[in-house]
Amino acid sequence: MEHVVVVNHPLVQDKLTRCRQKETEPWKFRELVEEITALMLYEATRDMPLKEIQLETPVSGTTGRVISGPQPVFIAVLRAGLGMLTGALRMFPNAKAGHIGLYRDHETFEPVEYYCKLPHGVEQGECFLLEPMLATGGSAAHAIVALKKRGVRRIKLLSLIASPEGLHTLRHNHPEVQIFLTAIDEKLNDKAYIVPGLGDAGDRLFGTE
Ligand code: URA
User: Fold this and answer.
1) Which of 162, 145, 165 minimizes the C-alpha distance to 196?
2) Structural domain tally of the chain?
3) What is the pLDDT of residues 137-160, one digit of tens each?
4) Is 33 in the pocket of ligand 1 (CB under 6 A)?
5) Could you give the angle at the alpha carbon of 185 between the alpha carbons of 107 and 160, nearest 5°?
């Protein structure tokens, strides 16, 4: 298993670039984030088990394969993870979703949890944590601890962009969590924003500033 997968498919990279552009308006930004998430899931769910079923096409009987086992569970880190959740639920309409609310303390940049609602049975399926920006890595690491406390053992993290620092924090604290990204950027600035990044993902999604 590759621990860090950067999805370099041209479709994903094209959409990521349009997300980065500051002229991209919130409605378009939301659409792009949803599409990127759906395409990332194509990679991140490659190892899902399949089972054979018998079916009838209009022409004949045949055998087909469908995803077996429990549905994945998507966990959105509020608020920016909501943008990815829409794309994820479009791919898996029967999946359940959880929400973890964290904000960054403006002085320490440490995550503070203000909300956590996870579906019953969350520990039975594979959890996909949706956090678009892996900046310091603090929020994602905190969310993973919250999931582990609830007994979740199988966790994958989906982020659009990581900083080298954030990636290091995650790999160090949760080495068993596989991370899917579309880019690893240069650095964090002194406000803990990813450079070049795409700005504040929540603001870009919802038009707040
Ligand atoms: N969160 C964001 O939305 N953007 C960053 O660059 C860092 C954290």
Assistant:
1) 162
2) 1
3) 999 999 999 999 999 999 999 999
4) no
5) 85
pLDDT in tens, 157-179: 999 999 999 999 999 999 999 99
Q: Which of 131, 167, 193 to mutate to test the pocket of ligand 1 (most atoms within 8 A of CB)?
A: 193
Q: Is 111 in the pocket of ligand 1 (CB under 6 A)?
A: no
How many whole angstroms separate alpha carbon 63 and alpha carbon 53?
6
User: What CATH number does the domain containing 200 carry?
Assistant: 3.40.50.2020
Q: Going by CA atoms, what residue is nearest to atom 4 of ligand 1? A: 200
pTM of the full predicted structure? Answer: 0.95
Which residues span the domain enclosing 129?
Answer: 4-206
Structure tokens at 158: 């989906």
Pick from 20, 160, 194, 205 the residue to mutate for probing ligand 1's pocket: most ligand atoms within 8 Å of its CB: 194
